[in-house]
């Protein structure tokens, strides 16, 4: 969480009117999983930075939001999991599948665009209804 905080602090120094900051969290912050307390806690802090800084950065025309992905088919997610575990986790959302990187990147693209100019201080849970 320190890295996120300091990166935002430095980025703002170089941003002009209409800048965009997009943080990353996790949908795990809305679930309870054994052995995830440090991870979920640090991502919860990122979500609070996002909310609190929206008011501070708004007068400069800078938006700040967080994307909170659910399970996505990446090496980080699949390593150490059996095919059965992946299927079980995939069945936990409304679409019955694991997300794809494109499911997340398209939301990031929206938040980076002018179309999101009225969206700030939000955490978008991009997880297929996982939570």
What are its keywords?
single chain, 131 residues, alpha/beta, Rossmann fold, three-stranded parallel sheet
General description of the model:
The protein contains five helices and three strands. With 131 residues, it is of the alpha/beta class. The chain has a single domain, classed as NAD(P)-binding Rossmann-like Domain (Rossmann fold). A three-stranded parallel sheet has the order 1-2-3, with helices on both faces. The radius of gyration is 16 Å and the shape is elongated.
Q: Rg, please?
A: 16 Å
Mean pLDDT: 94
Which fold name corresponds to the CATH topology?
Rossmann fold
Tell me the quaternary state: single chain
Q: Low-confidence spans: pLDDT under 50, at least 5 residues?
A: none
Q: What is the chain-wise order of helices and strands? A: HEHEHHHE
What is the approximate shape? Answer: elongated
Number of domains: 1
Number of helices: 5
Give a quick precis of the structure.
The chain has a single domain (2-126), classed as NAD(P)-binding Rossmann-like Domain (Rossmann fold, 3-Layer(aba) Sandwich), CATH 3.40.50.
